[in-house]
Design goal:
Helix content is 15%, strand content 33%. It has 232 residues and is an alpha+beta fold. A hairpin with a 2-residue loop joins β4 and β5.
């Protein structure tokens, strides 16, 4: 009979996640003023990476950011490039799969997460999960914002509060605490968030990292939906 894998579980205090996210958000702040269209970002994504002390860029690479503005809205994109490279967006192929056709430098890695490495600790994988989401929203302004509406949870946010307006998709006990679960081959970061954007929802995020890699496979499950939310 095959023995079950031994799993090590590390729980993280909510204050830690909120602090890392606050620092990353501050480092990623962009101005709402600037020319329309795609430009080189005046905000350096390397400053966002520097918030996460257990992570670092692989030797020979650098993170670069491009900014899109349209009136009061904005979005951005991050690329991992060889050091010294930062081509103008007009000189880059455009990714036509996306509505804003972001620039993709020819020398960019397929995913900027492939240029990230860490110290192998549980905290490093948690940091990578947060970094992934913060840089996925790099350069977002007003209608471009989505992840910024989420709040990390460590308890049921609707217990005793308008509970009759919520529909639960999940049956059984929920471990609300942010945590890392590690076995021989992988680390899974699990956390729950609440968002009121468009529709109030409670979601569970699960990121699975192969040991030694900081590019995860991500899964998001809706735990519950509530009343109508808000729009930007």
């Amino acid at each position: 009979m095959q023995k079950p894998q031994v799993r090590a579980v590390t729980h993280f205090p909510l204050e830690l996640l909120d602090d890392l996210r606050s620092q990353a958000g501050h480092a990623a702040t962009v101005s709402g003023q600037g020319p329309d269209g795609w430009t080189k970002s005046e905000t350096d994504p390397m400053d966002v990476l520097a918030v996460f002390k257990t992570l670092r860029i692989k030797p020979g690479y650098v993170l670069r950011g491009y900014q899109f503005r349209a009136h009061y809205d904005g979005n951005g994109v991050v690329s991992a490039l060889p050091e010294g490279e930062f081509p103008d967006p007009a000189d880059c192929p455009a990714d036509e799969r996306y509505a804003l056709a972001p620039p993709v430098p020819i020398q960019a890695l397929k995913s900027w997460m492939d240029a990230i490495e860490g110290d192998g600790s549980s905290l490093s994988y948690l940091s990578a999960s947060i970094l992934l989401r913060e840089l996925a929203e790099f350069g977002a302004i007003w209608h471009g914002c989505s992840w910024s509406s989420h709040q990390f949870l460590d308890a049921n946010p609707v217990a005793g509060h308008a509970a009759d307006q919520w529909q639960w998709q999940h049956q059984g006990r929920i471990d609300w605490r942010p945590r890392a679960t590690q076995n021989k081959n992988s680390v899974t970061i699990s956390c729950c968030t609440f968002t009121g954007l468009i529709c109030e929802q409670i979601l569970r995020h699960s990121d699975v990292f192969s040991i030694g890699s900081y590019r995860p496979t991500c899964k998001v499950v809706t735990l519950a939906t509530g009343p109508r939310g808000y729009v930007h």
